[in-house]
Design brief:
The chain is of the alpha/beta class. Helices cover 38% and strands 14% of the residues. The protein contains 12 helices and 11 strands. Strands 3-2-1-4-8 form a 5-stranded mixed β-sheet. It has a 3-stranded mixed β-sheet with strand order 5-11-10. Helix 11 links the parallel strand 10 and strand 11. The longest helix is centred in the last third of the chain and has 18 residues. The model has no long low-confidence stretch (mean pLDDT 91).
Length: 335
C-alpha cells in the first residue's frame, strides 16, 4: 500500500502573488483573514527533514503551491512532486487564495495514491512514525469519539466546522451508523472519559452526531472520500470553491475527516500531538518542545502576532535555531 503526503505552502511575501491577491481581495477582511494566514516562518526545510528522518517509508511528497517555490528546495528530489494550483484545480475556481477550496480539490492531484496524509505547513513530525499510525488495513486512522461542537464565534473556521457537521448529518443516520460501528466510536483506544462522553451523547442525541474532535495533526484520508463528498454535496463544495477567500458559508478538510468517521471508514486511533500558538510569550515553551521532541506531532499555529517585524524576526529566529538543533542534517529535499 502506497501512502503519499500532501502539504500546502504559500509565500506570503512574493510580490507577484501579492499583486494577484490584491486584484480579488474583498474590502471586508474577516476576523481570521490577517497576514498571519499567509506569513511564512521559514521552517519548511525542517518539515522536510522531519519527514525524511521519521517517515522514510513515504511514497511521494506532493508540495502544493500557487507557483512560487522556497529557495532551499531541491526540485529534483526523487520523492518530491511539485503541484501548482492550476495543475489540479478546476479552472472556474482559479486563482484561489482560499485554503478551503484548495483542500477540497487535492484528490484531483494526478498520481496521488488512494491513501494519503494531509499536512498544513505548520505541522511537523517530531518522532518516528509508521504507516500504521495513519492507515490500518487500508482504513485511515482517526479519533472517532464524539465531542460536542461549541457555540460559534466570529472566526471563519468555527462556521466551517458547523457547516461540515451539518453536511455529515445530512448524509448519515447516527442511529444506523452507531449500530454498525459502535466498537469504533467507543473503543479501548480512547480514554474512559471519552468513551463515557460518547455513550451519554449516544443516549441524548440518537438521531444526529453533535461533533467530533478536530486534531491539530496530520490527517489520513482516502481519495475516494473526497470523490464521494463531491458526488453527494456538489452545491456545498461549489460554494466553498468558487470564492477566492475564506468566508462563513464554506467547509474545510474536516468534512472529509468526519465523513470517514460517520461512515465507519476509519480505524480508532488517538494522535500524540501538541498545538502551540506562535506568540512571543510561548517562545520558551515552543523551543523546549522542539528540542525535546516530546510529542509525535507538533503544530505551530500562527497566533496573529502583530507586534512588528522585529519581534516576528526574533521569534522566528529562535524557533529556527531550535529546529536546527533537533534536525541538523539537510534532507534530500534541500539544495
Amino acid at each position: 500500500m502506497d501512502i503519499d503526503f500532501v502539504v500546502l505552502w504559500v509565500d506570503g511575501s512574493d510580490p507577484a502573488w501579492l499583486a494577484e491577491k490584491e486584484k480579488y481581495e474583498p474590502e471586508r477582511v474577516l476576523p481570521d483573514g490577517g497576514k498571519n494566514r499567509w506569513r511564512d516562518w521559514g521552517l519548511m526545510p525542517y518539515w522536510f527533514r522531519s519527514v525524511e528522518q521519521y517517515a522514510p517509508w513515504v511514497n511521494k511528497v506532493y508540495f502544493v503551491t500557487w507557483g512560487h517555490l522556497p529557495a532551499f528546495l531541491n526540485t529534483e528530489a526523487p520523492k518530491l512532486k511539485i503541484v501548482k494550483h492550476e495543475d489540479f484545480m478546476p479552472e472556474q475556481y482559479l486563482p484561489s487564495f482560499n485554503s478551503c477550496s484548495i483542500e477540497m480539490n487535492v484528490h484531483r492531484i494526478e498520481g496521488l495514491s488512494e491513501q494519503f496524509v494531509y499536512f498544513n505547513d505548520d505541522l511537523f513530525l517530531m518522532k518516528p512514525v509508521k504507516p500504521e499510525d495513519f492507515f490500518v488495513d487500508g482504513l485511515p486512522c482517526a479519533y472517532g469519539a464524539e465531542s460536542p461542537r461549541k457555540s460559534m464565534g466570529f472566526e471563519t473556521w468555527e462556521h466551517h466546522l458547523q457547516n461540515c457537521l451539518t453536511a455529515v448529518n445530512r448524509n448519515f443516520s447516527k442511529k444506523e451508523q452507531v449500530k454498525k460501528n459502535r466498537s469504533k466510536y467507543v473503543s479501548r483506544k480512547y480514554s474512559g472519559k471519552a468513551n463515557l462522553r460518547t455513550w451519554f451523547l449516544e443516549k441524548l442525541y440518537r438521531r444526529f452526531f453533535v461533533g467530533f474532535y478536530t486534531p491539530h495533526a496530520p490527517a489520513a484520508y482516502l481519495k475516494s472520500t473526497f470523490e464521494e463528498i463531491w458526488e453527494k454535496e456538489p452545491e456545498l463544495l461549489d460554494v466553498t470553491c468558487k470564492e477566492k477567500f475564506r468566508s462563513y458559508d464554506q467547509v474545510n478538510q474536516y468534512i472529509a475527516y468526519w465523513w470517514q468517521i460517520a461512515k465507519g471508514d476509519f480505524y480508532p486511533y488517538v494522535p500524540d500531538n501538541r498545538c502551540l500558538g506562535l506568540r512571543e510569550e510561548n517562545g520558551d515553551e515552543i523551543c523546549a518542545s522542539i528540542i525535546k521532541q516530546e510529542h509525535r506531532f507538533l503544530c505551530l499555529q500562527d497566533g496573529n502576532m502583530n507586534t512588528g517585524d522585529e519581534a516576528f524576526n526574533a521569534l522566528s529566529g529562535r524557533i529556527a535555531e531550535a529546529f536546527e538543533t533537533a534536525f541538523p542534517q539537510k534532507s534530500s529535499f534541500e539544495l
